Amino acid sequence: MARWSDSMKLSEYKEYETYLQVPGVYEIGYIQRETFYPKYIGKAPVTLYQRIRTYGRDLGRSSHNRFIRELVEVNYHRLWFHVIRVSRPGGAALREALLMNRMSIGEGGLYEWNCRYEYAPLTEAGYVLR
């Protein structure tokens, strides 16, 4: 089973370019007392690097997520991310959907900065939603 990578500082994403040249799933959040606390989950169907760089300070202002857009402005240095690399692009969408469904989104969920569930990958894979 795939495992989360070590945490990487979002402001230093360029240092990990080679490692991030695969599809995958990522979480963005904070580190407190050496523990990663995710707040947002996303998928990268092409490469993680292409997706993570959209949160870079140079491009982060255009993020669709208002929480991340605001934090890139004022607390960029406090944001961290980690990833699960997958072997095929479709695997990223399914893994993201499974984690969202299991951990919940929005207020009260683990992924409180996510605003909508991604159900299509689950139904396409044959999961029955209740």
Secondary structure: elements and pairs:
Layout: E1 8-9, E2 24-32, E3 35-44, H1 48-52, H2 66-74, E4 80-85, H3 89-103, H4 120-124
Antiparallel strand pairs: 1-4, 2-3, 2-4
Walk me through what this model shows.
- The chain has 130 residues and is an alpha+beta fold.
- The chain contains 4 helices and 4 strands.
- It has a 4-stranded antiparallel β-sheet with strand order 1-4-2-3.
- The radius of gyration is 14 Å and the shape is globular.
- The model has no long low-confidence stretch (mean pLDDT 87).
Quick tags:
single chain, 4 helices, 4-stranded antiparallel beta sheet, 130 residues, alpha+beta, 21% strand
Largest sheet: 4 strands, antiparallel
Helix-residue proportion: 25-40%
The succession of helices and strands, N to C, reads EEEHHEHH
Radius of gyration using CA atoms only: 14 Å
Looking at how many chains there are and whether they match, the oligomeric state comes to: single chain
Strand order of the largest sheet: 1-4-2-3
Which band does the percent of strand residues land in? 15-25%
N→C terminal distance: 25 Å
Low-confidence stretches: none
Short description:
The chain has helices spanning 48-52, 66-74, 89-103, 120-124; strands at 8-9, 24-32, 35-44, 80-85. It is of the alpha+beta class.
